Hints:
Blueprint: H1 2-28, E1 41-43, E2 50-52, E3 57-58, E4 63-64, H2 67-73
Antiparallel strand pairs: 1-2, 3-4
Amino acid sequence: MKFLLFLAIVLLVVWLWRSGRRSEQRSDQAAPPAPPGPQEMVRCAHCGVHLPHGDAVVGRIGLYCSSEHRQLAEP
């Protein structure tokens, strides 16, 4: 009887240890970060090219694709 109780305890400890390792492995394999969403596209006030809003150069009259175009359009 003592042998069966000892065997049950050992099996329970092994099962808990293995299930804990599985959950650690799952948490280590995190999902890759999601790609950034679509960006708002704006038009250069000088040449008309479309570019992402984050790359645009802000001027007094509008948005530009480069600082050169901003200087040409806004003296």
